[in-house]
Every structure is written in C-alpha cells, then in structure tokens.
Amino acid sequence: MTIVAPFSPFKQKPYRFAFKAAHTTTARAECEKLIACYGNHPMEHAEAVICLGGDGAMLETLHDILIQGFNKPVYGINCGSVGFLMNPIKKIDLSERLNRALAITLHPLRMKATSLHNETREALALNDVYLFRQTRQAAKIRIHIDHRVRLKELICDGILLATPAGSTAYNLSAHGPIVPLSGNLLPLTPICPFRPRRWRGALLPSSACVMFTVLEYEKRPVAAVADSFELRDITHVEVYEDRSLNVTVLFDPEQTLSDRIVIEQFRT
C-alpha cells in the first residue's frame, strides 16, 4: 500500500463528478441534493467518483473501477453506519473538499479458487479473502507460503488473509492484528482454530503468495470468499497481492485512513 498526499487539485471548471449511491433513503436523498448542485457525469468522463453510503457501497464502487479499468479517485460520503472508508457529511463545497483531500492508493488481493468440479474462478478483494466451513464439521486446511508448507493441518472454522485496509474489518473480529497501511504486511488469521490450539496466525510480507489446500474436502466442504464473491466446495485457493492494479481513495485531511487505523488500535 502506498500513501500519496496531497491529492492533485482539479485542473478545470466546472468539475465533473460521477455519483453512486447505496440503495438507502439517506444515501439517495443526499445524492439527489449533490446532483442538483453539480450535475452527474458518466464515470469515464468524470474527474472523480463520489460514493454515498457505507463501507459496503464503497467496496462495490472500488470493485467497479478495478473491473472497468477506470483510473478515477473515489471520495466517500458516509450515509451508512460505520463508514470506516468514508468521510462525514458536511455543508462545504464539494470541489473544495476534494482539492484539500489526501489520497491513498490501495492494491487488491487476487484470489484464484478451484472447486471440487475443477472450476477455477478469480476474484479481487480490497478487504480480505477467507475460507469457511460449509457444514457442522470443522475444516481441515494446509497452508503453503511461497510454495513451502508452513502448516500441515489447521483444524478450524476458517482462515482469512486481509489487506492492511481490511485488517480492521473481519480480521479484527477474528482477533487478528491491525496493520498500518505503510507496513507492507498481510495478516493471516485463523477463525476459531481448534488445532493447533495456540496458533494465532502470522504477519506475511505483501509479496507473499499463499496457497490454501482443503483436506478431506468431500467430507468437510469449504467455501472461499473474496469480499462479496463466493465459490463453494473448493479444493484449493491461491491468494496474493496484485500490485499491477490499484484504486485511489480520497480522505479529508482531518482524519485519513492511516489515522483511523491508528485510532482503532486504542479503542476499548
């Protein structure tokens, strides 16, 4: 992950924004107000994308930009609950806010998952990739790091690999470590491990390639999830950070994503 500050101001007026709103009353109402002031442009012609909603809406917008190949910065306005990736609603000129914003570049994880039926699917994740048991029986998973077996058998509900930005989400709920954006580390965190009982995971370099092999996959079926994409009955999953892809997220200078990650480590 790379922090870029400050964000380059727009070169011309009127500024062209593309607005995307979550399917909630608050987000849609706020979006209509902003469109009335600034207009609404197709994403390919806009200078920035304005996302209104919560973190889910932001992740969906960032995925759209990655898939479509648009090199557009995204500024989030929180109309949801947590809004970790968003900025607060303020009655300040939107163009002025973006000209003062700080930019953070995020690289996604790329998941390559193969199913029991020999179907291989790829997906990108800006938060995390995780494996999880599909039935009442615990999963058995072997872990390779850079083509070397590091854990022969993990008996667990599941395991996840998170980005630094995603380390405060599911990873934190699973008691994984919070990672600073500048750390170039990926937390590998077990979900309810049974054996080895005291294994709490690992911090891996961002260059690591992680392979999960599902043991006894017919008896103990496992699903793989990359953000909102899910593939069931998988046999093995490869995950690595794809530095050929990136998205730019804008934050008010009063509290950037890096600041929020630090603050989260001191919450009680």
Main features:
5 helices, 17 strands, Tumour Suppressor Smad4, eleven-stranded antiparallel sheet, 2 domains, elongated, alpha+beta, Rossmann fold, 268 residues, six-stranded mixed sheet
Kindly summarize this structure in a few lines.
By secondary structure, the protein is an alpha+beta fold.
What does this protein look like?
The protein folds into two domains: 2-107 and 246-264, Probable inorganic polyphosphate/atp-NAD kinase, domain 1 (Rossmann fold, 3-Layer(aba) Sandwich), CATH 3.40.50.10330; 109-241, Probable inorganic polyphosphate/atp-NAD kinase, domain 2 (Tumour Suppressor Smad4, Sandwich). It has five helices and 17 strands. The chain has helices at 25-38, 55-68, 94-100, 170-173, 257-264; strands spanning 2-4, 17-21, 48-53, 74-78, 102-106, 109-115, 120-125, 128-133, 139-145, 148-162, 185-195, 202-205, 209-215, 222-226, 229-231, 234-241, 247-251. Strands 6, 7, 8, 9, 10, 11, 12, 13, 14, 15 and 16 form an eleven-stranded antiparallel sheet that branches. Strand 11 and strand 12 form a beta hairpin. It is of the alpha+beta class and 268 residues long. The mean pLDDT is 92. Helix content is 18%, strand content 40%.
Report the major sheet: 11 strands, antiparallel
* Annotated CATH topology of the largest domain: Tumour Suppressor Smad4
Q: What CATH architecture of the largest domain would you give?
A: Sandwich
CATH superfamily of the largest domain, by name, is Probable inorganic polyphosphate/atp-NAD kinase, domain 2
Share of helical residues: 10-25%
